[in-house]
Hints:
Strand content: 25-35%
CATH topology of the largest domain: Pseudouridine synthase
Order of helices and strands: EHEEEHEEEHEEEHEEHEEHEHEEE
Structural class: alpha+beta
Radius of gyration: 22 Å
Number of strands: 18
CATH superfamily of the largest domain: Pseudouridine synthase
Distance between the termini: 30 Å
Amino acid sequence: MDKPAGISSFSALGSLKRNLGTGKVGHAGTLDPFATGLLLALSGKLTRSVSLLSDMDKEYEAVFRFGEETDTLDTEGNVIAEAPVPEYSSIQKSVVVFSGTITQIPPAFSAIKINGKRAYSSARKGLDVEMPERQVQIRSFELLNWNPPDLGVKIRCSKGTYIRSVARDLGLESGSRAFCRSLRRTAIGPFSVDNALPPETIKQNNGLLPVDFFQSIGVCVKTVPLDIAGRLRQGFPVSRLSIPLSSEDRLTLFTDDNGIPAALMELKNEKLHYSIVFDNFS
């Protein structure tokens, strides 16, 4: 789905749950309320596969405003520091630092848990929150345009990367200050926002079926005879079934001869284990 600005990722699922007629819907990769763009949602038993999507690289387009830094590192906060707007040449020199593995400090206004509490909960109360450093990967960092004091950028990065922190750190590296004025997620792994729809317009037939979904993220799909597929749907002991095993595939979706899913299996210690059983298919 293409999440609009002004609502949380959780709230964006509301209309989807109503349209699908189920409360079992989860999203992969939270977007801040001020941000827009691609939000992937899984329903039913596929909610167990959220981690497969959360681990994928993500791509963002953002606008960084130089000359000011806010406490939230976005437009919703209060200005806490000011500095001269840097020359574009200074930004160009500084951006090379943000490549490959970098260390960043996440925003205090984030959902990261510190001592069992969401960091933003303490930050909103005016409490000092010490955020631990983390290492993330910047796959690519493209400067799109420079309209002082605003810089347009496109960034592809690993999970856990905070673009708001990149804005702050690029501002400091350039001898200035900066915050993220706008943020739009354009891709997660192989999925693009170009194929996304507003949450309220999504119907059941807009989504991917299990087989198409798993194939799109590179999970191996194998066909087994109807009788074995039936036993898989019943959670039959794997050791008593003749199932093709490949040490190259950590995850395998087994379907019957008609292409209907039976079970998603995970390979651990050279043995197959059930991950998802599609027992609602006959």
